[in-house]
Design a protein that fits this description.
Helix content: 55-70%
Membrane topology: Multi-pass membrane protein
CATH class of the largest domain: Mainly Alpha
Number of domains: 3
Number of helices: 30
InterPro entries: MMPL_dom, Mycobact_MmpL, SSD
Distance between the termini: 32 Å
CATH architecture of the largest domain: Up-down Bundle
Protein name: RND family transporter
Radius of gyration: 34 Å
Subcellular location: Cell membrane
Keywords: Cell membrane, Membrane, Transmembrane, Transmembrane helix
Shape: elongated
CATH superfamily of the largest domain: Multidrug efflux transporter AcrB transmembrane domain
Strand content: 5-15%
CATH topology of the largest domain: Multidrug efflux transporter AcrB transmembrane fold
Amino acid sequence: MTAGIARFVADNARLVVVVMLVASAVVGAGVPMVERSTSLDQFQTDAAAADAADYVDANFSADGAETTTAQVVIQDENVLDRETLVAVLEYERALRDDETVDETLVETRSVASLVATAAIREDRERANATQNGTTPSDANETRDGTAPSDGSATPADGERAPNIDAQIDALRSRSDDEVERFVGDVLAGDGNRSSQALTLLPDYYEPGSTETNATLLVVTQESPGASFAPGDAPDEIEASQTAMQDLAPDDGSMSVLVYGDGIVSTEITDSMVDSVTLVGPLAIAFVLVVLVVVYRDLLDILLGLAGVALVLVWTFGAMGWAGIPFSQPFVVVLVLLIGLSIDYGLHVVMRYREARAADESAPSRAMAVALGSVGVALVYVTITTVIGFLSNLTSPLGIFRDLGLVSAIGIVATLAVFGLLVPALKVELDAFLEARGVDRAHPAVGTGRGPINRLLGVGATLAAWAPAAVIVVALVVSGVGAYGATTVDASFEQSDFLAEDPDDWLKDLPEPVAPGTYTAERAIDTLEADFVRRDTTASILLRGDVTDPATLDRLDAARATAGDASATETYADGEPAVTDPITVMDRVAAENPSFAATLSAADTDGDGVPDRNVTGVYDELFRVAPDDASNVVHREDGSYEALRMVVTVDGSVDDAVVHEELDAVAAEAAHDGSATDPDGVGADSDGSDAAGDGAAADHAGVTAIATGDVVVNRITADQLAETAITSLLVALAAVMIVLAVAYRLTEGSASLGVVTILPVAATLTWVLGTMALLDIPFNIVTGMITGLTIGLGVDYSLHVSERFVQELAEADTTAAALRETVTGTGGALLSSAATTASGFAVLLVAILPFLQSFGLITALTIVYAVLASVFVLPSLLVVWARVGGRYVP
């Protein structure tokens, strides 16, 4: 900001206020247009695996119906005893009787239902035997060997189960010993009914045992409309799964945890609202405390808070006009702008106070001096910080581009509000009050004698006596940090967006600040530890000539590879959790003699895989079991287009390992297995993938690609790391060029721009090293830390460099110029750092883990940036002055 603009603002304060308020009203009109978004689809990458996932969602389903599954974890001392089995069935009945749940309910599956059905089945066998004079073992088959269609078969046999009341009565009428016998029979570990039951028990369960402490109730629901992305479940699914949790028994008979897409969507939305209502007031409260301590003036405090509010209005108004929705990561932007707004305000106000104390000039004159002095630094800071955030536009992830753009808009709004409106308001109000005898002159922080002054003077003293030693120490620490930076991992998981259940003291806060109760994260932990999670599945998608018998042979071999992979879950009976057209054919053939005959005729070598008339086998499969068929085979207008293998993934296995193993399975499904994927990110036509985005393998007209959330999430995580590194390099290079050019034009020294950016580079290594030390990965918000560090670091460094150049022109010695710099500007730096750091530190009480880690690392970033600016940069400036011939002893 030139001296002419500064004088214009100070001399035409009323005009500036009017123009800025009108502009605020126009931009602020966009605030009501901001929509909320909870869909994790906004974080999806553009990789080939993501396109394949969309294809799977669109073309594989049960008979064209869109369904979703809720997994209900039921825990008790023994969930297989008669009392708990009855309680489970009563809970199922409550679900069916509830209007909200019943609106979407398709079916429920539980061990309790299988055991009850077995009891009813035995009763009917005995009744039929008595009536027909046959033995009970003969009574369950008709003449053609098929199960009867009167509903007497178990749900696992594909027939309709007896009604829930009959099941409850069957178990209530039996003794504990009789129920225990049925449990043992159902879970003996042989037959289709047993294998189905074992999928509902924890992985540590021993087949045939009649005791265990946990089981699953699987609830299948019809999803209204098309398929949806995680976190974006339809309202009906959200309401019904919330109702499932509310319907859980509260008499202590058993523990119930509901997990599903509806619960996830609800908790993502609630956590976003709770985070804003909890973090926002606390951040403002912390900032207010710091402002009271620093300003010690009610008017300046109120102006600061009003400016912060207006910056947020401008930012969210721009989001509304641009159609950018508000999602969880934007909570970070809110806190960032609160901190930086106070930062800008502090520099203007403290420089204004210094100007008034120097010559007791009128408010307008003092403000012209203040803006003419600190305004240049603020403009540089804004330009470089905007560059730092706009470096995210290089990210392949759309959400990062939006975050970078919105943050940049917010920084520009901060300059406009605190560089124009707040100074103009302060001039008018101070002049108005002083005309009525109110003294508006206040000292600037750090300019008087005291502990702050002495602390700030350490950097200047060290720079004067041993600048080389300071630089060497900084280089050593930076080297250690740079080494640690190479070990920082990247993470993108659905669980990253789920809140941990808050501590009781947070829940005891007054409404509406107090957060709610969150259970999804606990449910995920339980499912991953003890069960085969039904929502952690990956798909191997095959497209092309899928009616070629060789395609099924390769698929059969690939399934064996998938079953041996460490990433593949296994059921309690040891069977791998893998489903594909061949396993479906086997299961249907075991239950349907008509299809068994078709499959046998097509399988000439007896290996269970059709080697002729594959189209006819698919046709018959769709005729007798359309739901099962459409889940693994896609046909369009009578033509068979694609197959898929579904692999349930062990959530405890590292994503990179999962990705690598699944890509090997995909390569084998479309190839003879001689080539594998060297980088774990897919294979091309010769079994390797140079693109690194999960590209498909190709053989004999058939492509195969590993896809699904777990694969796409790994690719997204890799792109998060790529974003962090790319934005770091782009921002550092761009900021260095801008500063070098600016200082070449204004001070005749491009090297001053390079010196100013060096402490920022050091801060980056310290921050990344700390992330490695604390095991904090790059995620959807910490991936912004490199751009944020550059923005904040340049902010502090620029103020010191700019003030040093001004003081050097007037001071008798370089040491005196340094002391004036760090005690004058340093006081404002410490004050602004305290407000910004406290604002981010508030995120430590956030209910979202990624916000907590971001709050911690950003608060440390600010501390590091101040240390580098006050203690390292002065030594660099001394060396710069000596080399450039500007040093004055």
